[in-house]
Each structure stands twice: as structure tokens, then as C-alpha cells.
Amino acid sequence: MQGKVLLFVSVLVLSHRASSAVELGNWMYLGMHGMSALQHPDLFMLGSKDRNSAAGICNQITGLSSGQKKLCMLYTDHMMHVGRGARNGITECQFQFRHHKWNCSTVEDSTVFGPILSIPSKEAAFANAVASAGVVHSISRGCRDGQLASCGCSEARRPKDLKKEWIWGGCGDNIHYGYKFAKNFIDIREREMSVARGGDDHGRQLMNLHNNEAGRRAVIQNMKVTCKCHGVSGSCSLITCWQQLAPFRKVGDHLEEKYGRSTRVKTTRSGRLRVRRKAKNVPTANDLVFLERSPNYCHANDTIGSLGTHGRVCQKDSRGPDGCAAMCCDRGYETIKTKIKERCKCKFHWCCYVECKTCVRDVELTVCK
């Protein structure tokens, strides 16, 4: 079944070409609304057993390219996990950029992030990478949990440095399958587009493919081996180990570091990416790349989709991106008094619930002018 994915993608690339990325919308929309993928998973389970149902479901999902719709019909039960992965990617993007001028805010259409991602900046590089990572993470976990028909527990080889007396064979997260499916599902969108070699569109295609791969590798690089003791009264007479995904927050932290060290590249006439400045280190497949410098996020701009930083909360004593000097773009800030509600005086009741009261307290916030 795993080979089926690769074969099918090869046929699609040869048989179908799409004309414009703008017309396609964005597959990440599945993580926001996407045909109720997360609210009604039973629809996707039904589609995996009935080809007609699958076609109806997949054709209604906003943002999928032609090739992605065909993969959706073949692997309908995977779509719930693709949607969950996209949602996790969007949420993680918003967490990592919560203190930046561009805070990864979403819009109510199939572009997900608005016109911002049409600019081949390092923000677009991060967004694509973290969404790709989200799908790998979600599919790999779905395999382990027995929620997908075409995969199961990890079949990873025993690590060479694992103690001989320890047993290798617990039900691990299937990163091998998760990586392969995510690569085919996400990258087919780029590969089915017909673009002129060496042109701007080709450069963006190569950039997206590179950053998609960097996101997938981030999940692999942060995996770990987990072990558990078995025995009477914690004697640990037997130890079983397996492969386990890291929490997605750790993957997000990893990619945020890559974002800070991302490399600006350009497209050559031969249709490859190369570093713009010779002094820069050549990026590996694990690093993020971008083609153009980031736009000015200081002011609202409908053309590029920037909301500006007016009214954003900042920290007057911080020298980081959340500091008022940086966040407010030297426009200054003002202090406002407001009230916030929060849970307080929580008590645990036997058994088993927590009861809290709602408290209101006065706070002072500094916001950008």
C-alpha cells in the first residue's frame, strides 16, 4: 500500500498540469474549516469504503489541487489527520510568532493567511514548513493509533546503541509512512504546476518544495526512543522500547530557530536555487530558504495582507521583537487600563472534577499607537 502512493503520484505528475497557484487556494484550509473534517470524522471513514462518497467529499474540500483531490479519494480516511496536522501547523505558527510584527493571523478564505504567503519571504518559508511538519506528525500518530487502514505501528529498526537486554518492539509512531504520505500529498501541489524553468514561478516552486522537506525533516530530527519498565512492584525486570514523536511544540521551536537563520536564495537559469551572497553558508535540506526580503509589517496594507501593529500589546522594557520600540516601529505606545477575567480559587472535588471561580482584576497594558 505504501508503494501505491508513490506510483500514483508519479502518474499524476505526468498526466495532469495545473495553471496557477492562486486559483488553487491553499490545502491548509482543511485545518480551519475543510468540510468539517475535524467535527465529522465519520464522513471520511465512510468515504474510505465507498468511492462515490469519497469523490463527493473530496470535491467539496476547499483549497485542494487536482492531484490532492485524487489522493483524497484514494485515502479518504487520511484527510481527517491531514486537517488536524494543518490545524496544528497554523496554531504553532501563531504561537511562535505571537510576539512578532506578523503574528501568523488567518483570514476567512481559502488562502488561510491572505496575500502574505504569496510573497516568497521567510515568513512564508516557515508557514509552509510548519504545516508540512504538522501533517507528518498527525499521520504518523494516526498510524500508531490504528486509525488508518494502510499503515500500523512503526517498523523502524532497532537502534544500535540500545542495550541488548532491552526489548525493541513497542507500538511506535510510524514516521516512515507519515513522512512518505505527507511528501506526496503536499508536494504534488507544486509538482503538477506547469512553470517556466528559471523563472520567478519556478523559483517559488523550488522554494516551497525545499521548505516542505525541511518541515518534514524537523519531525524526524526530533524523534526519540522511549522505554517503559515492566515487572511486579516496579521491579523493572523487563524493559520495552519504541520510537516516539516529540511534542509538536518542540518541532515548532526547532523550525523557529531555522527561521531565524534562514537563507536568501535566487533562481539560476538552469532552474536551481543558489545563495545570493557568497559569504552565506550553503543551506542544507534541513534549513529554510526564501527568495525575497520580508515586507514592512508595521502598517496596514491590504495589498500584501498586513494588518499593521497599531493596537498590538507590547512590552516597554523588552529589547526583543515584542518590545515596544520594535513592535510599534518607533511610533510610540500608550498605556491603557482594562479589566481581565480569569479562573481563580480552583478546588479539586472528589471525585473527579475541578471547580473554579471567575475573578476580575485591573491591569495596565502598553499598546502601539
The side-by-side strand order for the widest beta sheet comes to 1-3-2
Taken as a percent bin, the fraction of beta residues is: 15-25%
Structural class: alpha+beta
| Mean pLDDT score | 86
Secondary-structure element pattern, one letter each: HHHHHHHEHHEEHEEEEEEHEE
Number of helices: 11
Task: Report the end-to-end length measured between terminal Cα atoms.
Answer: 57 Å
Helix content: 25-40%
Number of separate structural domains: 2
Number of strands: 11
Low-confidence stretches: 1-24
| Biggest sheet overview | 3 strands, mixed
Radius of gyration equals 23 Å
Principal-axis shape equals globular
Short précis:
This protein has 369 residues and is α+β, with helices and mostly antiparallel strands. It is built from 11 helices and 11 strands. 39% of the residues are buried.
Task: Characterise the protein shown here.
The protein folds into 2 domains: 2-156 and 171-217 and 245-290, no CATH class; 310-368, 2-Layer Sandwich (Endo-n-acetylneuraminidase fold), CATH 3.30.2460. Mean pLDDT is 86; it is low at 1-24. It is α+β, with helices and mostly antiparallel strands and 369 residues long. A 3-stranded mixed beta sheet has the order 1-3-2, with no helix packed on it. Helix 7 crosses helix 9 and helix 7 packs antiparallel against helix 10. It contains 11 helices and 11 strands. The longest helix is centred in the middle third of the chain and has 23 residues, at 122-144.
